């Protein structure tokens, strides 16, 4: 057998073994990971009712009976699904009002390793665990977000089950039908439009479509149409959700630009390392140049989103700090001024890595699950909560008059 053929066959065997391993890990996560349980003060805070009030409603049959340990007969705590039922009964769901629009946000930077996908995933998990209706839109051909949500890319997804054919307006895929590709996750109120490797071809096809539009008499309207394909589709699917979170490629091509134009707010993760800070400045330069060109072409028809810069991978301790981490954080804050978030994402590699193996975030698991250190989980939860609460206050609530009024009362907005 020729050497090239043997190498090709060997690679095929490696890949098949790897894919079998991944499928096995997914099965373990689905079979062995218990649901997150809420009890005590956590339950009270989520439901917005006192413990005795909840217990009385259960006793009188106004709420379903609680789950009990078969051996001790003690309460196990409420699952998220049960919390959602309680929120509905007590009228405490955090949803936007019907007249308010879902907020669309994206986490983007054109450098890998900045925790773009991880932050997207954790934000969606946190908001879902608060009771919001959340939709993920995965437009990264690497499909990491899809995989994190328990869906195996290209084995359990395909081009037709992604947004690809809707973006390209393929025959039989009108934007109004895009809801049919929304998939469930392990959380009842967190859904996803999955990605697939074939989305890599969408960038090329978009480029061709825009080049063709430039040569036609009605080129401006056609170019605007192609730059807003993702926005048009998201507008068709967002009515059933409160928050839509999009994840795309770490680049600034036509598909990522589509994601930015579809967003109400863009959060730019910036690792607190000097090379990543410099890379983010390059991202800003390129985005600024692209935006100026588009604005010169389309004028006020181009609506750019708000931007927040989120420092990530920060460690202040002498033992684990990256050299210059404190210094770089100071430069990030000086550079981006009021658009830099006050909260930062610290390093939680051990926690995030262990839970990623089981396709879960710190908000999805109980203390002690998945061999995660309890204190490390507690620290990670507190850190991520601070970050995502700030995003709610700065990027989400101001767009909902009902929430904005609450912020104004607190003197926050």
Give the structure's gist in a few sentences.
This protein has helices at residues 3-32, 40-47, 51-59, 80-90, 116-130, 144-148, 164-167, 200-214, 219-227, 229-237, 254-262, 274-298, 325-336, 349-357, 374-396, 401-410, and strands at residues 103-107, 134-138, 183-184, 190-193, 243-247, 265-271, 306-312.
Topology, pairings included?
Elements: H1 3-32, H2 40-47, H3 51-59, H4 80-90, E1 103-107, H5 116-130, E2 134-138, H6 144-148, H7 164-167, E3 183-184, E4 190-193, H8 200-214, H9 219-227, H10 229-237, E5 243-247, H11 254-262, E6 265-271, H12 274-298, E7 306-312, H13 325-336, H14 349-357, H15 374-396, H16 401-410
Describe this structure in words.
The protein has 2 domains: 40-90, no CATH class; 103-410, 3-Layer(aba) Sandwich (Rossmann fold). Helix 8 (200-214) packs antiparallel against helix 9 (219-227) and helix 10 (229-237) packs across helix 11. It has 16 helices and 7 strands. It has 413 residues and is of the alpha/beta class. It has a 7-stranded mixed beta sheet, sandwiched between helices.
């Amino acid at each position: 057998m020729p050497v090239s053929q043997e190498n090709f066959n060997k690679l095929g065997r490696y890949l098949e073994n790897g894919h079998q391993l991944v499928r096995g890990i997914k099965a373990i996560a689905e079979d062995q990971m218990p649901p997150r349980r809420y009890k005590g003060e956590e339950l009270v805070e989520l439901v917005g009712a006192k413990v005795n009030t909840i217990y009385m409603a259960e006793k009188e049959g106004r709420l379903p009976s609680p789950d009990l340990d078969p051996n001790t007969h003690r309460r196990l705590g409420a699952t998220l699904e049960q919390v959602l039922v309680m929120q509905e009964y007590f009228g405490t769901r955090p949803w936007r009002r019907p007249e308010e629009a879902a907020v669309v946000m994206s986490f983007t930077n054109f450098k890998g390793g900045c925790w773009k996908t991880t932050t997207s995933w954790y934000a969606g998990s946190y908001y879902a665990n608060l009771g919001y209706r959340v939709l993920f839109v995965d437009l990264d051909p690497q499909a990491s977000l899809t995989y994190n949500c328990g869906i195996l890319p290209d084995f359990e997804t395909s081009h037709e089950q992604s947004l690809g054919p809707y973006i390209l307006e393929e025959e039989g895929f009108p934007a109004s039908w895009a809801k049919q590709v929304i998939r469930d996750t392990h959380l009842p109120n967190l859904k996803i439009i999955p990605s697939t490797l074939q989305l890599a071809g969408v960038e090329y096809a978009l480029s061709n479509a825009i080049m063709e539009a430039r040569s036609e008499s009605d080129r401006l309207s056609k170019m605007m149409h192609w730059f807003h394909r993702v926005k048009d589709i998201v507008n068709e699917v967002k009515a059933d959700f409160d928050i839509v979170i999009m994840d795309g490629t770490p680049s600034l091509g036509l598909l990522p630009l589509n994601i930015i134009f579809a967003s109400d707010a863009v959060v730019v993760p910036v690792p607190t390392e000097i090379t990543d800070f410099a890379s983010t400045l390059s991202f800003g330069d390129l985005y600024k140049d692209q935006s100026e060109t588009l604005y010169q072409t389309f004028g006020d028809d181009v609506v750019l989103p708000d931007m927040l810069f989120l420092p990530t991978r920060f460690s202040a301790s002498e033992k684990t700090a990256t050299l210059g981490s404190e210094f770089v954080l100071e430069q990030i804050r000086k550079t981006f001024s009021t658009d830099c978030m006050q909260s930062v994402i610290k390093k939680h590699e051990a926690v995030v890595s262990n839970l990623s193996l089981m396709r879960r975030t710190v908000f999805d698991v109980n203390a002690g699950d998945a061999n995660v250190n309890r204190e490390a989980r507690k620290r990670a939860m507190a850190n991520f909560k601070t970050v995502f609460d700030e995003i709610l206050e700065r990027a989400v609530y101001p767009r909902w008059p009902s929430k904005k009024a609450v912020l104004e009362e607190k003197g926050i907005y």
